[in-house]
Amino acid sequence: MAEPKTSELMEKIVSLCKRRGFIFQSSEIYGGLNGFWDYGPLGAELKRNLKECWWRSMTQQRDDVVGLEASIIMHPKIWEASGHTSTFSDLMVDCLLTKKRFRADQIEPQSGMAYFYSGATDQNAGTRSAEPFSVLLPPGKPVESARKVAWHFYHERGVRHPTLLGERAEKAENSTRYNPENGSLLTEPRPFNLMLKTYVGPVESEDNKSYLRPETAQAIFVQFKNVLEVSRQKIPFGICQIGKAFRNEINPRNYTFRSREFEQMELEFFIRPDEAIEAICGSVAQPAGPQPSTLPPSPPASARPRRNEVEAGNPQPNWGWQMWHKYWVEERMAFYERIGLPRNSLVEYWQTPAELAHYARATVDILYKFPFSKRDENGELAGEELEGIAARSDFDLSQHQRFSGKPMTVFDEELKAAWPKLEDAKKAELIESYRGSRLRYLTKTGEAPETAEKQAREEADALTKGYYVPHVIEPSAGVDRLALALICNAYGEDQAPDEKGKLDSRVVMRFHPRIAPIKVAVFPLLKNKPDLVRKAKEVRDLLRPHLTVFYDEAGAIGRRYRRQDEAGTPFGVTIDFETLGEQGPELKDTVTLRDRDSMKQQRVKISELAGLLIEKIR
Ligand code: ATP
Q1: Phi, psi of 281 (to 5 degrees)
Q2: Which residues pair with 197 in a beta bridge?
Q3: pLDDT tens, 514-558?
Q4: DSSP 3-state assignment of 215?
């Protein structure tokens, strides 16, 4: 079957999500609320499954990661320390005609003829506007279209019957200054803070202003010391959290991809600074392959570095930030494959030095090739971000140490013991390296040079006694984007026989059994045969303690299968007359097990059914 065009495909996916109850528009009966979504019965199960898979693999199946569930609203100082109050903004532009708001970086460059006006006048009414305005028209469009837009612009500004003044035309190349929808000039870009504000308590004063968290990570940093104390962990170890985050996105779009309320799954994995590792282990292991610092500043998409050729393997004591970063990239890629996203649908994108945040040493974005992704110069889907894995140095804990005045240092027994055994030259080298990196951090924070020098020296001295601020690797993923990726990836159309055995097209959601909302559907062949119904209910009750089961007795069996194909249920169990022993004793207490993808059916003993299914969905 030919592949549907991408926009058509997205429309089909959106329609299926509504029809089958994966995703609904929030507040739909009131016309919806832009950037907010609700998950219906199947969507809620899907999201729950994928969060559980993440939680299990990130903490329950590891010794070195523990969980946290923090509040959504936190002390506003946290957002000053993290930099969100001052820098968490996107550049926005408004259409001068319609006031529609866009993110400046999302305006596609356009070429054509720009028509400029110096103002407009209404001689009869004696009104006038001297505000300059311009309109960009695509090549070949008549000047009247520009005049119409300009007419409305001046009309809106109080010139009731405008006569346009000073018209002049100029060619424009790749301009991002115009609204792509109507050609109107946009405002100059200006920053817009994405945090949603609220007030805590009954008084709406500046003192009571707070924010809905724009990410879950900061709570982990501010609870770092508490968790360290109670969890009997030592560096390296991680703290993970799943929870809601809110961003007042200027332009929510691409279905649930960019929402204003969403969920994140974040891990902060705390590690020793490289100087401490070198002191303890003698050297710091380096990953194979090109290092981020050697990357060209802005490679074209086709030449983007993909560094998945070397497996990081099992963690070792001599791993510094580069190995740990690589390890988490590999772990996260493996996770996506385990829940059914094939490697070739993902892109491992290493941010170039020019793209990195000032505190980050390396960041890898894991992209999924959504149907709405842009295409690169080779016509391939470039992919959109599902997760970022950042090596964030000791920036976050240092910031909270500075802003809260509470120490975020840890004491490392092994470092203290190793230090006296080092040669003097090595000691001097490590002290200098550590002092240098602390000085760079302190200088960037705006500390006076003498104070920064003094503090950096003191911190380097503390290192020799076993104290340091841990560094961190942060894999940060979005639950909703991942759910959408899984839905897009699962969507398929093929041919299946109908009730009469004639081939008919079917829509099938090929979710990996691990994350499928319903694992198995149980059907009595006929609804009006009490023995079949009773037996089918017995099978349902047998499976229910172990799996999500859906029982359905309504309609022809073929139609029931189709409904479950659209829901993405990987297995269907049918109780028929053979099950009752009516076709001979050898088939008694066996059922038909149908596989969603191959549509193959096999006979299975009821006593073996639970074990077999559990094995398949594990
Ligand atoms: P983008 O560049 O797409 O805005 P980001 O780099 O700002 O994303 P992060 O701050 O790194 O995103 O957040 C971590 C993860 O949280 C993202 O990889 C994404 O999966 C999810 N996320 C961020 N913003 C949104 C949003 N508006 N809607 C849904 N998920 C989001």
Answers
A1: -105, -10
A2: 211
A3: 999 999 999 999 999 999 999 999 999 999 999 999 999 999 898
A4: coil
